[in-house]
Amino acid sequence: MRSSLSFPFSRTTLALGLAVALSGCAGMNAATNVSSTEPSRLQGEITSSSPINVNDGSRYQSFYLNLKAGELVRVRQTGALENAVLTLVDDRGQLVGGPSQGSLHLAPETTGKYRLGVSGGSDNGYGPFTLELDTITAQNGGDLQVDESVFGLLSRNQNANDYQLTVGEAGLYEINLGSSELDTVLKLSGGGLELENDDTAQSTDSQLVTQLQPGITYTVTATALDQPPEGTYDLQVGRKALPEGVELTNGGEISVGQTINGLADSGEKHYRINITERALLRVNMSSSDVDSYLKLQGPSVNAEDDDSGDNYDAQITALVQPGNYRISASTVNGAAGLFTLTSSVRAVSSRSDRVRPGEAVAGRLRGDQGSQVTLVISEPGFYQVDLVSSDFDAVLHMEGQGMDLEDDDGAGGTNSRIGRYLDAGSYRLTAKSYENGKTGDYVLSVEQTDEG
């Protein structure tokens, strides 16, 4: 989402101020004919002797233009003048386009003489500038072709443009909507898809990556968050190749220990996994493209996680009973990208008073004092200790060998994790609840890691 431009006053107030100033200006050069066959160039300079904008004290310069109805003219400003504000008014001093910083599209409804104003961005904005005026053709609807770019226009009377898209073969496609004037919003519907994206790659441009099928007519909508949404944009559809050897599995039955690749987008991808015995289940969603988000739902389990894995990866560890569970994979902000989903189970020991690396022991919390388990470390190294429970908000305490550590939600959700370098010896682990009086089952697991 783009913040509003840094105009000294509101858009409406500034527009009125510029319109009043321009309507009263005199002594300008003869009108420039803007041709559809040859670009026009205008040059000027804002100095201390330039007329003053009555709205904010900035200086301005104006140009007469002869414009034709139905022709779209793009104005782009370059030069030493920074944050220049462009505005177009008609021969009655009525606002037609702008104000806009650095660029402006001119789309008059009637043929006639107009005034294009160039204002400094502030009361001390001075310097030379050049205006490039190009007549261009906008396509505000119709068919989209793969690997072709479309130039479009949003206006006060048309704040969203719909296009139709069909593809010749099934595959992964990328749709991009970019603009230097608008905070774009891109939508796609059809074939059971309802996707939308606002910002991507730390910009205000929009992007959707999804699988499309032949024989389906999709609707691609270009719009913007700006009010009113006035500005031009570029829209393009392209085929996106999958990495070699990667096949997408975007839902259905998966097995414990299976690794699958999927495509995340603004919706959730749902998978089913069957658990045959009481165990500690770990599900990991990793991606170099998106910020992963993961849910796990099933008998006595309703967990979700954002960043418990490496970097922005999601990871859920839960004590599960025999039965069917649903895994839902998505992203934090609806961005699209490839991800990898893995799962593993670890048998749970019923002996709950002692645990070693590579083991998981089950216990039951019965009082406010917590339950204690002895951790035995034979070799020094980095270790990760997790306390997992679906019955209470777990708190893990570790003492021994000069350490006194505690964690609440380090393992994601309400589960706890302590990761440290541990010397050989014995440690006392205490499983507690964040809320007094809570009871329930838990699992303590320990594993050696590459680092803390």
In short:
The protein is mostly beta strands and 452 residues long.
Structure commentary:
The protein has 452 residues and is mainly beta. It folds into four domains: 11-136, Sandwich (Jelly Rolls); 142-239, Jelly Rolls (Sandwich); 252-347, Sandwich (Jelly Rolls), CATH 2.60.120; 354-448, Jelly Rolls, CATH 2.60.120. The protein is 3% helix and 53% strand. It has one helix at 11-23, and strands spanning 32-33, 40-46, 60-67, 72-78, 85-89, 95-101, 103-106, 112-119, 127-136, 142-144, 149-154, 160-165, 171-178, 184-190, 193-197, 206-212, 218-224, 231-239, 252-254, 260-264, 269-275, 279-286, 292-298, 301-305, 314-320, 323-331, 337-347, 354-355, 360-365, 371-377, 381-388, 394-400, 403-407, 416-422, 425-433, 440-448. The strands form eight sheets. It has a five-stranded mixed sheet, covered by helices on one side. Strands 10-12-17-14-15 form a five-stranded mixed sheet, with no helix packed on it. It has a five-stranded mixed sheet with strand order 19-21-26-23-24, with no helix packed on it. A hairpin with a 2-residue loop joins strand 23 and strand 24 (301-305). It is elongated, with a radius of gyration of 31 Å. The two termini are 37 Å apart. 38% of the residues are buried.
Main sheet properties: 5 strands, mixed
The low-confidence parts are: 3-27
CATH C-level name of the largest domain: Mainly Beta
**Order of strands across the main sheet:** 1-3-8-5-6
Going by helix content, strand content and strand pairing, the class is mainly beta
* Overall structural domain count: 4
CATH architecture of the largest domain: Sandwich
The portion of residues assigned to helices is under 10%
Beta-strand residue percentage: over 45%
Question: If helices are DSSP runs of H or I spanning 4 or more residues, what is the number of helices?
Answer: 1
What is the terminal-to-terminal distance? Answer: 37 Å
Beta-strand segment tally: 36
Mean pLDDT, all residues: 85
- CATH topology-level name of the largest domain: Jelly Rolls
CA-based shape: elongated
If you compute it from the alpha carbons, what radius of gyration comes out, rounded to the nearest whole angstrom? 31 Å
